[in-house]
């Protein structure tokens, strides 16, 4: 049971990003989590992208503080935004599927019981 709870907690933090890249301006406007692929640092994940005086920055939270990481447009390969629908679906569907799977492995066969209820 402890392993199931650990898996559920682990999948709560999963984020799926869209494969189609967007512009920095779209990322600022949408205010979603983004993954920025850079030439030098690889993949950087930000809570969102901001802009001030024409300079872009990524926002991360660390120990209760907001930290701005400057972004240079010429150093960016792509920007991918969070896919909210698939991320939420993963958080809901995967634990349900795991629970049903474990119940089937360790419990009785799923199906209709004699009292008219359905057993998973």
Q: How would you describe the overall organization of this protein?
A:
The protein has 120 residues and is an alpha+beta fold. It has a domain at 15-85: Roll (SH3 type barrels), CATH 2.30.30. It is built from three helices and eight strands, in the order ααββββββαββ. It has helices spanning 2-12, 24-30, 84-106; strands spanning 34-38, 42-46, 48-52, 55-62, 65-71, 76-81, 111-112, 118-119. It has a three-stranded antiparallel sheet with strand order 2-1-6, with no helix packed on it. Strands 3-4-5 form a three-stranded antiparallel sheet. Strands 7-8 form a two-stranded antiparallel sheet. Strand 1 (34-38) and strand 2 form a beta hairpin. Helix 1 (2-12) runs antiparallel to helix 3. The chain is elongated. The mean pLDDT is 82.
Q: Outline of this structure?
A:
34% of the residues lie in helices and 33% in strands.
Looking at this protein, list some descriptive labels.
alpha+beta; SH3 type barrels; 3-stranded antiparallel beta sheet; elongated
């Amino acid at each position: 049971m402890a392993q199931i709870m650990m898996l559920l907690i682990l999948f709560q933090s999963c984020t799926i990003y869209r494969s189609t890249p967007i512009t920095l301006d779209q990322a600022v406007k949408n205010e979603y989590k983004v993954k920025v692929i850079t030439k030098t640092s690889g993949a950087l994940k930000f809570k969102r992208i901001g802009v001030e005086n024409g300079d872009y920055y990524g926002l991360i939270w660390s120990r209760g503080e907001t930290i701005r990481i400057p972004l240079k447009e010429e150093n960016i390969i792509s920007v991918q935004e969070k896919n909210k629908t698939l991320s939420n679906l993963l958080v809901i569907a995967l634990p349900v599927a795991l629970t049903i799977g474990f119940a089937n492995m360790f419990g009785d066969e799923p199906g209709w019981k004699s009292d008219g209820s359905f057993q998973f």
